[in-house]
Amino acid sequence: MRDNVKLWLCYAEDNFSAAQVLLESNLCNPCLQNVQQAVEKWLKALLMERSVELKKTHNIAELKNLCTKHGCDIELSDDDIEFLDAIYLPSKYPLGSALPNFDPDKSVCERALRIAEQVSKTVQTYCGVA
């Protein structure tokens, strides 16, 4: 595994750990923001491991499709992808919500963490970590 891939995996793990701590402190928006960032970084690490040139994007659907195109099946349902993509802006900026009736709470955060944990396991397997 390349050093840059290891670094991206480490940053993703940091975001995931931060999300867990933030949820314990009932800080839902930053929890969700860190979950989204963790998933994004895990997918980008996998793409780098597959020697795919990255472009700047925060779009989970686009990253997942690139992974699929390069032979990596990431278990993310369309609903999970839509959910993760909808988190990005409302968790960062008070611009109004992309999620219907978005009011981040513990259950929303727990769902996001479960999805992220599955992505982590899959990416680590493909990268030879797990």
Report on the architecture of this protein:
- This protein is mainly alpha-helical and 130 residues long.
- The protein contains 5 helices and no strands.
- The mean pLDDT is 89.
- The longest helix is centred in the N-terminal third of the chain and has 22 residues, at 3-24.
- It has one domain (3-126): Four Helix Bundle (Hemerythrin (Met), subunit A).
- Helices cover 69% and strands 0% of the residues.
- It has helices at residues 3-24, 28-49, 60-69, 78-92, 106-126.
**Net shape:** globular
Gyration radius (Cα, Å) is 14 Å
Overall pLDDT score = 89
* Tally of discrete structural domains: 1
CATH superfamily: Nucleotidyltransferases  domain 2
Largest sheet: none
Strand content: under 5%
CATH architecture level-2 label: Up-down Bundle
DSSP strand tally: 0
Provide a brief overview of the structure:
By secondary structure, this protein is mainly alpha-helical.
Observed structural traits:
globular, 5 helices, 130 residues, Four Helix Bundle (Hemerythrin (Met), subunit A), mainly alpha
List the helices and strands and how they pair.
Layout: H1 3-24, H2 28-49, H3 60-69, H4 78-92, H5 106-126
